[in-house]
Amino acid sequence: MQEYVSDRLVGTLVDNRYAVRSKLARGGMSTVYVATDLRLERDVALKVLHPHLATDENFLGRLGREAKAAARLSHPHVVGVLDQGNDGQTAYLVMEYIKGHTLRDVITSKGALPPRLALALIDPVIEGLGTAHAAGMIHRDIKPENVLIADDGRIKVGDFGLARAVTTSTSTGALIGTVAYLSPELVLGKPADARSDIYSVGIMLYEMLTGKQPFDGDVPIQVAYQHVNGRVGPPSALVPGLAAEVDELVQWCTDNDPENRPVDGNALLQELRHIRTNLTDRELDLQPPAAIAAGAQSPTEIIARTNNPTSVMSPLAPTRPPRVQEQPWVQEHPLGQQRRPAEHPTSVFPGVVSPQAFDPRTAGAYGPYPDTEPAPLTKRAQRKAEKEAEKARSRAAATPLRSLREGNPRRRGALWVVVLIIIALLATGAGWFFGMGPGSPGTIPAVANKTVAQAQLLLSEAGFQSSTRDIFDDDVPSGLVVGSEPGAGTEIRKFQPVALFVSKGPQLFELPKLTGLTLDQAKNELNTAEMALGTIVEQFDEGIAAGVVLAQDPAAGTAARRGTPVALTVSKGPEPIAVPSVVGLDEDEAVEAIEAAGLKAVVAKDEVNDRNVPRGAVLSQVPANGTLTRGGTVTLTISKGPKLVEVPSFIGKQAGEARRELEKLGFQVRVNNVLGGFFGTVRDQDPVEEEVPEGSVITLTVV
């Protein structure tokens, strides 16, 4: 079916919330746009599903459940799922928008990477996967395109839940994913688990180290065939001088049998960091040959499932299948993970083809790399090979080149007696060696959380010789044993070496300086440093704007383990001060009250008459109430008291007229009637013809 998602979405509003701004990319299942979340005012990545998936109710139900599970997965190296929904015929996922580029861009531009850079880039990917695996989630589509590298250096794994929803809900028998990174069990339609993601990580690491994918073909089905029937060769075949530990790490991850791979991302992460710690600078900074070109991007393909591994060949592919090595040796994994006994103990990783055992010239027409000499042996492999060669020479020396000549029967009988005695002695010695001596089997005792002396004593009492290796561990205190290789409960011969892993305590990192940053900036710094946000306390500060970090605990530069919570003190800005009411107070009292509150009093230049407020008292203030910050200004207007008005004489005039005129002038009038005020004439007035305050009482005597 041809899929099509119209670019007319650009400029539209999805679900009345997400304003689509531009198109980012188009893949096998969806098209990704940059959108703005209008509700929260932030940029997001809007993944719009193709129409054939958007109309599948079973798929949408599965997608909703997977999106909820992915949204609960919070980790600095996993792209967050923010929302999921439908808007008419548009089914979408809303994810954290990471502004930057992908790991594919790095491989395309740089080609093969030095081991130091490759291992540093893959570390956060595996850490994010480890957290997902611990939460019961599987990605199913690990590839460079799904590894996002932000402009500030953060590395995140994207598209959790989408591939799982597709592979679980589609009923067409099709497998959707990038064929270059698919595990054999996914190609064959078998159940997948965390080890399927580990296989894809191994393929991706191979490509980062060599600049090429291990398998290629004219059509995707040829690549799928090689995943099922081929073996991933050591990267050192293309990058001479690459450390054997890196070869073995890649082949451990990419073993065809999931049982021979790391059980999950956390198991792989521990071994990866152990390797990074123990490789020399020369091994880490090895420069790949300039001739290695950047790996080409493999598009998402659809491959029909089948239960027959040989039927995945396309009609266009050659009919002769590639020749494949026999099942490789496996051994117990470090720190106690159980594996089958080793046949060729020349590698430190279980379930991988050792460099010297893999012949690139037998890999067939679609082999993972061109003809080349095998990678150099590790020191341990060299010692083992020398011992095997010495044994072979001893056996050859003990084998007669011709039969004894005919002779005296008695002599021949005596010789046979001697031979039988020697054989009996050898058998007795071998019986002692393998039954009670150094070759006898023994079980590794449990040594975790014990001191080195206690662990060595337990191993010595069990008949084993041990060596120690220091590693970082977040859970086991420094100086105590984390575990052993082989692990506790494993039965081995007593002459075989046992390694003790001794904790150096948690790996510590310096805390970044957060004071002076805004709260959002401080959160980003903590996220980048992989530290946790502790409690946030707000307090007023007269000199620092609101929202700026005033202090942190622990302090900047403190050595702390990853995930340590950092408490922050954040400014609330200057403390607001309530404006006191001073209206009616004397000027000096009012100024003193305002300054005592931490504010500044300013007296207006002009005073105002007021009949109700005495002279020298505060008539009004601005502001009259509310709050100001410390040092804010309150303006006071002072009263001049009531104004003076001259009282005219109304003697000899009628009392009614006198009252009206006086009240117009703002006076109060009191009338004293003499003899009943029969005539209504003003005989006397007090005061008269002088200036008195407005509102004064004028007394009229009326006859």
Map the helices and strands.
Elements: E1 13-14, E2 18-26, E3 30-37, E4 42-49, H1 51-54, H2 57-71, E5 81-87, E6 90-96, E7 100-102, H3 103-110, H4 115-134, E8 147-150, E9 155-157, H5 162-169, E10 174-178, H6 184-187, H7 194-210, H8 220-229, H9 244-253, H10 265-278, H11 281-284, E11 300-304, H12 379-398, H13 409-435, E12 441-443, H14 452-461, E13 466-471, E14 481-485, E15 491-493, E16 498-503, E17 508-510, H15 519-528, E18 532-539, E19 549-553, E20 559-561, E21 565-571, E22 576-578, H16 587-596, E23 600-603, E24 608-609, E25 618-622, E26 627-629, E27 633-641, E28 644-646, H17 655-664, E29 668-673, E30 682-686, E31 691-693, E32 697-702
Parallel strand pairs: 13-16, 18-21, 23-27, 24-27, 29-32
Antiparallel strand pairs: 1-2, 2-3, 3-4, 4-6, 5-6, 7-8, 8-9, 10-11, 12-15, 14-16, 17-20, 19-21, 22-26, 25-27, 28-31, 30-32
Helix pairs in contact: 2-5, 4-7, 4-10, 7-9, 9-10
Give a structural overview.
With 703 residues, the chain is of the alpha+beta class. It has six domains: 7-96, Phosphorylase Kinase, domain 1; 100-327, Transferase(Phosphotransferase), domain 1 (Orthogonal Bundle); 443-503, Trypsin Inhibitor V, Chain A (2-Layer Sandwich); 508-571, Trypsin Inhibitor V, Chain A; 576-641, Trypsin Inhibitor V, Chain A, CATH 3.30.10.20; 644-702, 2-Layer Sandwich (Trypsin Inhibitor V, Chain A), CATH 3.30.10. Helices cover 29% and strands 23% of the residues. The protein is built from 17 helices and 32 strands. The chain has a six-stranded antiparallel sheet. Strands 23, 24, 25 and 27 form a four-stranded mixed sheet that branches. It is elongated and about 185 Å long. The termini are far apart. 34% of the residues are buried.
